[in-house]
Amino acid sequence: MSKNPFDRFKAHLGTNRVPSNSSLKVIFAGSRVDCFTEERRLRPGPGIGWNSAIGGSQGFKDGFVHSSITKAKLKNAWTEERKLVAKIWKTEQNKLLKGQKRPKQSASISGKLNPMYGKTHTHEAKEKIRKANLLKVGPPSNFQDLYCIYCHQRSSFSRLIKYHNRCKPKEIK
To answer: Does the pLDDT value for residue 143 go beyond 60?
Structure first.
């Protein structure tokens, strides 16, 4: 399943899984849910066609369980030293990404250029901020958007609750 199957097919051509003399024929088109349902019907088990996973939404996760030997190997490999290295690497990567989204805006309000530099909020202002945050529902504003499975649109948590509740079919409500 893909929004643009021809580009996806071109990307796979010449790999060891898809022979270079292969061709593409679209056999089904529909909504996202309908496509996943059809893919699940056509590929109910793993290893059908070029795909190693079961068809449908999240098919690659269905029925997969690591063996007890693999679980033991993974557990033994995750030493304290590796945990420390991973923590340091993550910290360094986060520092590299700081200010990357909007570097000019970030620089223009950093340090002494920031209007709040050297100032603190009054007790009353802090109380107003606290009360305003108590009324907020849902995740923080930088949280990833959610996907409405009924109308196939991306939306924030609060909009999903407020507007997309009407998208549900009547028998589900």
So the answer is: no
